[in-house]
């Protein structure tokens, strides 16, 4: 069969055996039905007015209350006119106004965490024109700045000993709203809930307590699940924030489908929302599909996706993307599984977004070991003044973000027999990361058959794995991951 896989800014053709299985999120197995557009306002407002585990907004605020509304950056959630952020924030604002809160007492905060600060154009796309122009000119929309120590507060450590340094605007507010998405994430199961505050409005030292090898290389991290040590750290950090603040976050989270449409909306306390939302989230995200384990998984990597332009070309970021597929799909991989992935791999690091990655890459080549060995340089990079200045003032990623990438990137090497990168324009970058290179999918599969695969390998093709909201594939007879603490 002939298939097209993502490659650079276009596609690359592949001729694969006719018995190749294909999975496309939302198509091969349909998502649960989404809420019709004409009912979105009604369903969202009902959720907001009937919160789980806490009083409604009208009973929690009054005239003079200071309010923060924290919303995710452009990486998640969609930008369509009916996106969850655009609808829910407008409705929550009206609830606040009706309760006597003044507009000048409301601050909207983009929870970019260690991601690059979103530009005004990007925030306008995320919030929509009406919200954007209502608040931007009075300085009431800001990005979180994890290096702005005048507006951070050090809360000490959780019972597990994890540092918690958080946004002071949120800490000082009388009422804090988290707008989130219950969407499958290889880092800790789901976005939204306590993950939102634990990663989006904290400091690199807080994030270094969970986005590191000692957590990400535990046996409970792969395959992705809802009860890993990472997830428990998110929950403990979030609940510790609440204890120190003396208030609970008001969450408004939407379970999203493949096209970022709302399947279900849940509001209220973070723990209550997670308990409710993860039931539907599991139905959409953990898909019992495979009837056999796969010896080969074939997919393609565009140049621009998820974190930005260059994600699919610079060697450290593409290793993270490869590893994300391991984390999501380990349940259906054979013990000797081989990945075959197209990537231009042209040496484009995009130093405007990731100014520190060329230096990290050179260190990796000098060390000659594994990505894990670079972790000891985390604090050196995280305190580099020039890299910090670029994060704060030039829309670059925070330098410690690279270390969550390398911690993840090692997992691809650990859990596969071989990874072939097809179509690399500068194959030396791929080979430096331990990847094999071939010009075509057919050549890569032929070589893998000779060296790693059974005579008749089971092959799975994932033609749109980076341009759709991904799922976590399971064996057909697997049950949903009900062993976590929420689904008893």
Automatic annotation (TrEMBL):
Residue ranges annotated for the LarA-like N-terminal domain, each copy included: 7-216
Name by which UniProt lists this protein: DUF2088 domain-containing protein
Lineage summary: Bacteria, Bacillati, Bacillota, Clostridia, Lachnospirales
Top-rank lineage group of the source organism: Bacteria
